[in-house]
Structure formats: C-alpha cells, structure tokens
Amino acid sequence: MDKRVLSYAVLILVGTFISSVAQVMLKKAARRQYASFWQEYLNPRVIVAYVIFFGASLLAVFAYRAVPLSMGPILEATGYIYVTIFGVVIFHEKLSPRKLLALGLILSGIVVYSLLG
User: Fold this and answer.
1) CA separation (Å) from 112 to 65, 71, 74, 108, 116?
2) What are 20-55's pLDDT values in tens digits?
3) pTM as predicted
C-alpha cells in the first residue's frame, strides 16, 4: 500500500471514529425524556451528532479518491469495535460471548484483508 492510499485510509478511520462518537451522542440523547416532539429532535446533542455524521460522510467521500472501494467497508467495520468499546465504557453494557465472537470475526476479517488483500 503506498503512502497516499495509507493517508486516505487514515481519513476513513478517523471519520469512522467520529461517526461512532456521534452514535454515542444520539444514544445519550435518546435516553432522556423530552417535553415535546420538537425538543426530542431539535436539541443541541442531536443536531451536533447529525452534523458530525455529515462531516464524516464528506470525509469518506474525499478519502475514496485514493482508497480502493474494496478496502472501504473493511476500514469502516472498525466502527463496530469503537461502538462496542464505548458501550462498555460509557453505558456499562455487558459483553456477551456472542458479541465477543462477532468482534473476533470482524477483527479477523480486517487482519485477513490487510495481509492478503
């Protein structure tokens, strides 16, 4: 992998990470009670999360200028790892054997693609 592709791949990873942060923001917003429908969807946390999603999408579109399309989904799959870590650390969710197996398969796919792709 040349330097240009690697630097653009890092952009996808950064975009995936900040997209995962936005997912946490939306989950935190969803756990609150709101007085009205409008307050539920037009509050700062939700608006900022969607702005972050939009920015992450633009970052990915920009990064695909150099990153092969076959590599993109592999890089974006790291979002499952970030979200799982955030769930355990922030929301104190339990990791079941099934979730651990799924994460192991995701990591295995990333490693296999990195070595053989």
Assistant:
1) 23, 12, 10, 6, 6
2) 999 999 999 999 999 998 999 899 999 999 999 999
3) 0.84
Measured from the Cβ of residue 74, the count of other Cβ atoms closer than 10 Å reads 20
Query: Residue 96 has which token pair?
Result: 């079941």
- Identity of the residue numbered 104: G
- How far is the C-alpha of 10 from the C-alpha of 13, rounded, in Å? 5
CA dist., res. 23 & res. 18, Å (int): 9
15 and 63 Cβ atoms separated by less than 8 Å:
yes
DSSP string, the chain: --HHHHHHHHHHHHHHHHHHHHHHHHHHHHTS--SSHHHHHSSHHHHHHHHHHHHHHHHHHHHTTTS-TTTHHHHHTHHHHHHHHHHHHHS-----HHHHHHHHHHHHHHHHHHHH-
For the record, the structure tokens of 56 come out as 């992450």
Q: How far is it, in rounded angstroms, from Cα 50 to Cα 60? A: 15
Give the total number of structural domains in the chain: 1
